[in-house]
Structure formats: structure tokens, C-alpha cells
Amino acid sequence: MLKNQKSSLEKKEFTDKNFWKWFWITIVALIVVYIGLYIVALKKINNSSKNREDVITKLINKAQNKFPQLTQIVSTIPKELKQSIKDSIDKNIDKAYEPVYKQIDNFSGFHYSVTGEYTELFMALSGKIDKTIKEKIFNPANFDDNLKNSLNMINADTNNALKDYFNKISNEIQNTLKIDEDEKEIFMNQVIKFTENDMINRFSNTLSLTFKGFGLAGGAIAGAMTKIISKKIATAITKKIITKAAIKAGTKMAEMGAGTATGAEAGLICGPGASLCSPIGAMIGAAAVWFATDKVTVEVDKYLHEDEFKANLKKMIDQQKEQTKQTLYKIYSISLNNLAKENLKKIKNEKIIDIIRNDKK
What we know:
361 residues, mainly alpha, single chain, elongated
């Protein structure tokens, strides 16, 4: 029994020694392998880094030799880009104004009514008729929100067009320098640091500044256009109201005799109480003539001039819609020109310029 116990202890001791022996051998082996891999990787990184530096130097030299062509590529705004943005402006602004035209009939109905006539006259005298027009035409058409949505769509279309423009630039640079895809990536990202996101962000910044230059910061173009067209329509309607009021005044005076006769008859009927009853009769007669004339005048005016009024209203909306487009054409055109200048700065990389200067010495 003692022999067996001794044998078991010896076996356990041997097993423990054997375990730790191979444990540490394995650890040492792994350390050796790790150090070896680290050294190999470090050499590859250094070689890769050196190769990359060689590639960058080669690309900068190529850029120096093709510098005039490169500046032409990045500073030229293609006609198709301008046309794409113009098409988007036309399409989306037409869409924003479309509901406004549908309010012409409703506003005409209000305009050719006794209530509308007096409302317009009162607002014209207080200088606030443009607010009435905004409330009757533009608010029901949800114009401000529609125009803001259209501007967002124009920006989205422009960003897509700019992505195509960037691809065109990068491909032309690749062809000009005669480099492969990897070299193109290094040149665009590391040499001139000119990326798609970079260009779109720069355009967005210059666009925002241009809007501010036109006094339209923060999407204020919607409110500005509503205000402008409302005032134009208000001016035209105010002139019409003044002219119509003068004509109506003459008509009322001509017919006032009938009202006077009616009032006089009412006074005679009153008898002894004529001192009280006669003025009332006169007031009733005058009011009857006054409002009867209003009704007739409005109906006659509507019959004779409503089609012309609607046509003029449509014409004013057309003109303002065109003005909105022209304003946006200018804003985006200026922004594209500024983008081209910013692109040029990217090509005028310090490393490239330094080489050109050194070569000229």
C-alpha cells in the first residue's frame, strides 16, 4: 500500500513538472512568434509608408507638369450642371406656385362682392390691403410651406448634380495625370484633399452666404416672395378701388334725388311728428339708395371686368413666379462660381506650388 502511494506521488510530481515545462515552452514560443510577426509587420508598414511617400512625390511631380490642365478642370463649371440646377428650379418653383393659381377664382368672388369691396376699401385706406391678399390667396394655398419644400428639393437635386460633377472632375484628373484608381484616390484624398463630401459642404456654405447676400437668410425667400407679390397685387387693386369709388360716388349722387324724394314723402306721412320721423325716413331712403347702388355697381363691374381682373391677377402671379426663378438662378450661379474658385484653391496645393516655384528658380 505504501508502495502504491509512493508511486502515485511520483507520477503526480512528474506530471506537474511536465505541465509547467511545456506551458513555459509554449509561452516563450508565442512570444518569439509575436516578436517575429511584429518585426515583419513593422518592416511592411515602413516599406508601405515609404512607397506611399514615393507615390505622393510622383503624383505631385505629375501635377506640377499638368498644372494648367488641372486648374482648368477644377475651375470649369459644366453647362450640364448649370442646366440641371436650372431645370430643378423651374420644376420645383412651378410646383410651389401651382396652388396659388387655384385661389384666383375664390379671390375674385370675394373682390366682386359688397363685403369684399368695403373690406378692400378699408384695408386700402389703412395701408394693409396686402395682408388681406396674403390671407385670401397665399395662406389658403399654403404658399410659404410649399416654397420651402421646393427649395429643399432644389438643394437635394443640386447635391446629386454635384456628385456627378465631382466624379467628372476626378475622372478627368485621372486621365490627365495618367494614373490608376489607387493613385487617383491618393491624389484626391491626400495630395489635394478634394473629396465629394468636402465639395458639397463647401458649396452648401457658399450657397448660404449668397442667400444672406440677397437678404434671404434662413429660408426667408418664401416670406419675401409672398410679401412682394402681395404688395404688387395690392397696388393694382388699390388703384382699381380708388377709380371705382370715384365712379360710384358720381352714380350715387345722381341717384340720391330718388332717396331724397322718398325721404320727403316719408316726412309728409309722419304729419305732426315730422320733426322726428322725417330724418329717419331720409336716412332710410339714402341707405336704401346707397346699398342698392352698391349691389348693382358690383354686379355690373363683375359682368364687365371679372375676366380681365382674373387675367391680370394671373399675369402678376406669373411675373412674380418668374422673378422667383430669376432670383434663384442668380443665387445658384454665384454660388457655383464661388465653388469653382474654392476648387482652384485645392489644386493650388502648397506642395505643388512649392515644386513649381523651385523649378522656376
